[in-house]
Design brief:
194 residues
Length: 194
């Protein structure tokens, strides 16, 4: 019986150890399961964070693409405006200024003054050659000075007073770049053709 007792003691010790190990195993499994749950939660948070960042990056990329498209279309428009200015705009602006009332009036003021001054210079040259002398009459010099002063005054007015047509062209460009200028010159061109 003693042998049986030893075996029962041994079995009870093994059972106690087994129960102890089973409790430890359950505790370890519970810890592992808790850690697994935390790991899954963190993976879910990480996945959500990655998705959020991916959405932000896609949104930023879409916005950048939209800006690139907008700038590309603006560039195409500006290139068209530049080409129009080179081929039509500058010539049209010059013709518009040349045909403006203020420019014609300016030429009407300058032409007689230039003619008088040049006419007087021609008379002076002829008189000087005919006389073969270095002297000229005082009234001749006085007339020459008066004509030169008139011409200088008219030129100063021409240089200092801007043409209203020029100011109109500048205002049109300042208003909305080339579009208003294009309309103004197209209207002027159409009226010039009629």
């Amino acid at each position: 019986m003693e042998k049986f007792r030893i075996d029962t003691d041994f079995v009870s010790q093994v059972q106690e150890r087994y129960q102890s190990l089973a409790v430890e195993l359950e505790a370890s499994n519970a810890k592992a399961q808790a850690k697994q749950v935390k790991l899954e939660e963190r993976e879910e948070q990480l996945r959500k964070l990655q998705q959020a960042r991916l959405k932000e990056a896609e949104s930023a990329l879409d916005q950048s693409n939209a800006e690139i498209d907008s700038l590309t279309s603006r560039l195409a428009g500006l290139q068209g405006d530049r080409n129009w200015l080179i081929t039509n705009g500058l010539v049209g602006a010059f013709d518009y200024l040349r045909q403006s009332e203020s420019f014609v009036t300016l030429l009407d003021r300058l032409s007689p003054a230039a003619y008088k001054s040049e006419h007087h210079d021609g008379l002076y040259e002829g008189y000087f050659r005919c006389q073969q002398t270095d002297r000229t009459t005082p009234e001749f010099q006085e007339n020459r000075g008066k004509l030169t002063a008139e011409m200088a005054d008219d030129l100063e007015v021409a240089y200092n007073d801007p043409l209203p047509a020029y100011a109109e062209l500048v205002d049109k460009v300042a208003e909305d770049n080339v579009d208003s200028l294009r309309q103004l010159l197209d209207v002027a061109e159409e009226s010039g053709e009629e």
